[in-house]
Amino acid sequence: MTHSHHLAADGLGWHYGDTRVFADLALTVAGDQRIGLIGENGAGKSTLLRLLAGGPDTVPVAAPRSGHGFEPGSGPGSGHGSGRIIRPARTGLLEQEPPFAPGDTVAGVLEAALAETRALERTLDEAAAAMADGTRASANRYADALDAAERADVWSAEARRDALLDGLGVAGIPGERRMGEVSGGQRSRFALAALLLRAPEGLLLDEPTNHLDDDAVAFLEAQLRAWRGPVLFASHDRAFLDGVATALFDVDPARAGTGGASASAVFGGGFSDYLLEKDAERARWERRYADEQAELARLRLAVADTARHVAHGRGPRDNDKFIHRFKGARNDQAISRRVRDAEQRLATLEREQVRRPRDPLAFAGIPSGSHALDASAGSLVQLADVRVDGRLGIDRLSIEPDARLLVTGANGAGKSTLLAVLAGRLAADAGSVHRRRGLRTGILEQDVRFADPAASPRELYARVLGERRAEQLPLTGLGLIAPRDADRPVGALSVGQQRRLALALVIAKPPHLFLLDEPTNHLSLALATELEDALGHYPGAVVIASHDRWLRRRWSGSALPSPPPARRSSRRAAPYRDPPPARPPVE
């Protein structure tokens, strides 16, 4: 691996079997840049980040670690690629799924994150001791060790740890708590804290704002704006992109064939600027395609028509022989030259023409059907004095048949718990929950898990809906899963594609009460916007729990700030504290 103070990829390509993820990708992130990585679900954003985190500068590029978006059991050799990667010596990756074992403790995870820092500190101490010999080599060794220690900020490790835990909202969780005992959102925040605590020179972040509330997002924005080194992050968070990104890098396979060298492009500015430029780029592409097709038709006609004048299939008549002898040969030569010129222009244009703009994967909206229940018959769900021990406390809430309710609040305030109670998936410890007879609810959960990762989206769709409904309303007709992905193993799809499938399974048989937990997490920027617009016209009740600031700014329905969770009967957990010295860190 070539080390550098910037991050770069040149001619990078990656395939899984016969499936091309991307090709001839070129990207440079300077030390003072924060580039947002955007693109449709399944376009290869997570793959690119993993390659940049672990790919060597050899050809072929080695396979990244297995995980979401990779074939089951994938590893080195399951994919293949080429290209050159340059990155800082210490480059850190935040993945969407935290790589912790259930038995790992909070203290162990944080101490493991400081392993490099501890090693740099020891190296500096050893180099300082070696300077006693007075040699230039020892002095140079100490200078290098000091520079590395300063870049890693080794002397403020404990203070930075405490500030990170506090800023990300997990300071109150004790160090002995195991990862299997904390929520998925808390695991994600510990993964982010551990990465930032390492203080790598280069940062690669995959959906870093998932599971973060407003305060934590603001804290992360401040951290990244002050980061000394290249930052490349994939994000669905439109407000975060506007607030942090110095530029956007669009990984768009649909762009291949537009006449450019790569299926990717850099857009200056934030997400709002990108939307305008993206529309303008699409319009230019469509105009160029139309102009080239018109020119191709003209050239083909000209070649065919002119060739008929040269090869007319008869000799000259007697009256023409004299003129033909002197002028015919010259005319034929001129016509033949025009034919050759037209044929050359035609061959060049056929070879270099831009591909027809592919229709983007566009959400077809909520299928028609009977979603709403009679409004005159009363509320769909009524909650009174509901308590879920340590997680939720709510006095009264009624969900009407045409409700549009946005639930907001900090992490741990009980938003997901409230949706689970409304869906009937979680029983309240106290209070009453009354549901209308015949009520059908559907919920899009934050974390999607499919029990059979080897099954295809089309198979799962037919299992849930039944074969008859699946034939009447084909999966690919919803605009959520591309036809090329409909028969792949669901475990090989990206996190975003899996969430698209989960959305399809709900809306294909639209419920009377549609519950969505952080609906824009993991979804592409385009789909998130399309889904928001579709929900505004949903002929039933909609309840959304979301941190998404962009969604909240556009929300026109009612809002419910989620109440503080009901206190547990046991005493409050002690805040984070250092582990006992004799306790080794969990690797």
UniProtKB/TrEMBL annotation:
Per the record, the coiled-coil ranges are 275-302
Instruction: Cite the entry's keywords alphabetically.
Output: ATP-binding, Coiled coil, Nucleotide-binding, Repeat
**What spans are recorded as compositionally biased (Pro residues)?**
577-587
- Please, which domain of life does this record's source organism belong to? Bacteria
A molecular function (GO) held by this record is:
ATP hydrolysis activity
Kindly give the InterPro entries that the UniProt entry links to this protein: AAA+_ATPase, ABC_transporter-like_ATP-bd, ABC_transporter-like_CS, ABCF, P-loop_NTPase
Q: What is this protein called?
A: ABC-F family ATP-binding cassette domain-containing protein
Q: Which sequence ranges are marked TM in the entry?
A: none
Region Disordered, annotated ranges: 63-85, 556-587
- Biased amino acid composition, Gly residues: 70-82
Task: Specify the ABC transporter domain's residue ranges.
Answer: 7-278, 375-581
Please name the SUPFAM superfamilies in this protein's record: P-loop containing nucleoside triphosphate hydrolases
- In Pfam terms, one family for this protein is ABC_tran
Asked if Transcription is a keyword of the record, the answer is no
Leader peptide range in chain numbering: none
